[in-house]
């Protein structure tokens, strides 16, 4: 129903991405890259996930302590698999698993494994997918492989206006 190429999309240079890092300020590092699994990110794969804004980032992480807020922009056009383009039954099945105690990421990670097996990874730098907690999107990127400019870090979200 959907090929890897049909999921290919590009996030334009200058797109804003936001992440919340739940660590003590003295342990914070802008260069930190997670290898923890979750949603469309396989365990032991390097990459951070970013919300399209801080509302999404807060909803997804649900921080239990005061986190560090980080806002960046992409330095270049960034090819990604856009999971918004998956057929509706796939998105519904993934969404319906969001509250499972175990196995909640298995369907989304299965899709990534299939794309990797089909060698649809040529030039792909990340995954863009719908938030399962609020309206908006989430992006998984490795900031060591994708150029980003960090434009803000702080213990509260930036005031825009």
List keywords for this structure.
five-stranded mixed β-sheet, single chain, alpha+beta, 8 strands, 161 residues, three-stranded antiparallel β-sheet, 18% helix, globular, Diphtheria Toxin, domain 1
Description:
There is one protein chain. With 161 residues, the chain is α+β, with helices and mostly antiparallel strands. It has a single domain (5-154), classed as Diphtheria Toxin, domain 1, CATH 3.90.175. 18% of the residues lie in helices and 27% in strands. The chain is built from 3 helices and 8 strands, in the order βββαββααβββ. A hairpin with a 6-residue loop joins β6 and β7. The longest helix is centred in the last third of the chain and has 12 residues, at 106-117. 30% of the residues are buried. The mean pLDDT is 85.
